[in-house]
Amino acid sequence: MPKKKLTCHCGGVEAQVEVPDTGFKKIMRCNCSICKRKGYIIGIAGPNDFTITKGADLLNLYQFHSKTAKHYFCKVCGIHTHNRPRIDPKIYGVNIACIEGIKPFDIKNIPVNDGENHPHDKK
User: Fold this and answer.
1) Residues forming a β-bridge with 50
2) What is the side-by-side strand order in the sheet with 112-113?
3) Do residues 81 and 15 lie in contact, with contact meaning Cβ atoms separated by under 8 Å?
4) Separation between Cα atoms, residue 68 and residue 85, nearest integer Å
5) Per CATH, is 3-106 categorized as 2.170.150.70?
6) How far apart are CA 77 and CA 99, in angstroms?
7) pTM, two decimal places
8) Domain segments of the chain: what residues?
């Protein structure tokens, strides 16, 4: 699979993301309390498909509620670059707007993950 470069706004954080020529196998939005506020489109990357290549020291971690999901953002420019979702903390959710060559406003009919009713929240 071809690798694409992911960067935050200031360029301090860089990563390589493996993206098939046909695009991500799964993209989505999420309506959980943090994702709906960020408004980003999530591209799902496998455990070996995402590598931070620069600026790991510039990433801040934000966690809430169950403290399982990990949300990362650049502490210089504030851009959310990726997350490790609580449904499967081994994979990555990447902010596709940070990936070179992807135009997020050209993507239509993006499915919404129901993060408001997450299975880990059910008793």
Assistant:
1) 17
2) 59-62, 70-74, 80-84, 92-95, 42-45, 27-30, 112-113
3) yes
4) 8
5) yes
6) 16
7) 0.90
8) 3-106
Tokens 């990433």 appear where? 59
Helix (H, G, I), strand (E, B), or coil: what is residue 22? Answer: coil
* Separation of first and last alpha carbons in the chain: 40
pLDDT by residue, tens only, the chain of 123 residues: 799 999 999 999 999 999 988 889 899 999 988 999 999 999 999 999 999 999 999 999 999 988 999 999 999 999 999 999 988 999 999 999 999 999 999 999 999 988 887 666 665
Residues found in the chain: 123
Residues 6+ apart with CB under 8 A from 78: 9
